[in-house]
Amino acid sequence: MQLYGYWRSSAAYRVRIALNLKQLSYDNLPVHLIKNGGEQHSDRYKLLNPAELVPTLIDDGLTLNQSLAIIEYLDEVYPEPSLLPQEPAARALVRALALDIACDIHPLNNLRVLQYLTGPLAINEAQKLQWITHWLSTGFAGLERRLQDTAGQFSVGDEITLADLCLVPQVYNAQRFALDMSAYPTISSVHHHCQQLAAFALAAPEQQPDAQ
Amino acid sequence: MQLYGYWRSSAAYRVRIALNLKQLSYDNLPVHLIKNGGEQHSDRYKLLNPAELVPTLIDDGLTLNQSLAIIEYLDEVYPEPSLLPQEPAARALVRALALDIACDIHPLNNLRVLQYLTGPLAINEAQKLQWITHWLSTGFAGLERRLQDTAGQFSVGDEITLADLCLVPQVYNAQRFALDMSAYPTISSVHHHCQQLAAFALAAPEQQPDAQ
User: Fold this and answer.
1) Do A92 and B142 touch (CB under 8 A)?
2) Per-residue pLDDT for A36 more than 90?
């Protein structure tokens, strides 16, 4: 397998955790999102991923994009350990928690959005941090309330699920922007338990070959 | 079943299409996203959905949120007609197209984001339209290239899938903001074929009891 990603991309980070949990080896192929105007916009990369975003995973000649679609694919083709429960209601809960992050928090603070805010919309650095903090704290407030009902060691009980693969990169992102995590004890606890596992620790941005 | 939604919400619109395709009857419970500062922020609604977003679906005492998680749940519990192919690679393709819209286009032009841009960030109406158009055209450009490889009558071949349930509401949104669709002939063709079906037509915002 080949994973085209970027060390700090939350979406690539999710896929790295999944690959590690399933003990699937892969070539880590960095796509630098800033250098040369962004390598994700190169003609070569656009052929792999017309959305010009990371990650892209190649498995057995198959080109896959969108981190959650990639992880569900991996879970179907390489089912051990499973990242989703078996029962439909529990699967819906896990997927909803993952999407709470992947649809309603992460896209708003993505690099390309921040670049548009500070570029064409010309907002200043203080406004940019206010924007980032607003969407993180709004999203984490709802997530914290939901996890209070569902979490054990991990987001849903005591098994690792897709929800945890989204939570850990989002907390990494929040810490990077110095969000005060004291209002989110359940999110913090889940994050702490995940970080004890090698599959999560080795997927961390700083552990990647393209980390700066 | 009870569906808490809003006539113009793309996410609620996706779920309405799924319910119609599966011929599942439901009570349509409008949550007005603007009136009274937004009914989604009421104490009563927050108990159902701590993220204070629509839709929320109640099925047999189960409270479900996130449109894509709801639709996957419906597809698992009420499998006819199926909204995902059987084969993992094809499922990944359909999910990726759905997420291209649900993660990378829709959240950026959502009501709460536009409210934040025109409120705290004080951008003007021309800048707001520029923002909307930028993310629509960026997202549609990538989607058009992908659909050129995958589409038949619908997004993936000639069967309705989850991807179509995301595409149609996003095109509705684009038309509302007068996006020039001439650059996206494949998206337009898929949209046209979907609109011929009653399940899509009856799910349209203007057909809802809370339409204004």
Assistant:
1) no
2) no
- The ipTM assigned to this model is 0.97
Report the C-alpha dihedral over residues A103, A106, A111, A116, rounded to 10 degrees.
60
Asked if residues A27 and A35 have their Cβ atoms less than 8 Å apart, the reply is: no
Give the closest of A77, A100, A107 to B66, CB-based: A100
CA count, 13 A, side-chain hemisphere, A8:
13
What's the rounded Cα separation, in Å, for the pair A105 and A99?
9
Q: B142 to chain A: which residues are within 8 Å by CB?
A: 50-52
User: What pLDDT digit, counting tens, does each position of A51-74 carry?
Assistant: 999 999 999 999 999 999 999 999
CA-nearest of B175, B189, B168, B187 to B17 is B168
Span A131-178, pLDDT tens digits:
999 999 999 999 999 999 999 999 999 999 999 999 999 999 999 999
Q: Count Cβ–Cβ pairs < 8 Å, chain A vs chain B.
A: 128
Query: Taking CB atoms and an 8 Å limit, are B96 and A69 in contact across chains?
Result: yes
The rounded distance, in Å, linking the Cα atoms of B186 and B153 is 9
Number of C-beta neighbours around residue A163 at 10 A:
29
Residues in a beta bridge with B65: B56
Q: Three-state SS for B57?
A: strand
Amino acid at B135: W
Which residues face A5 on adjacent strands?
A: A30
In order of start, what are the domains of chain B with their CATH numbers? 2-81 (3.40.30.10), 88-199 (1.20.1050.10)
**Side chain identity at residue B86, one-letter code:** Q
DSSP-based three-state secondary structure for B183? helix
Best probe of the B interface among A41, A99, A187, by most B CBs < 10 A, is: A99
CB atoms within 10 A of CB A122: 10
Name residue A65's beta-bridge partners: A56
Give residue for tokens 């006539």.
Answer: B7
Q: Which two tokens stand for residue B170?
A: 């996003």
Give the residues across from B5 on adjacent strands: B30
- Of the candidates B73, B116, B145, which has its C-beta nearest A91's C-beta? B73
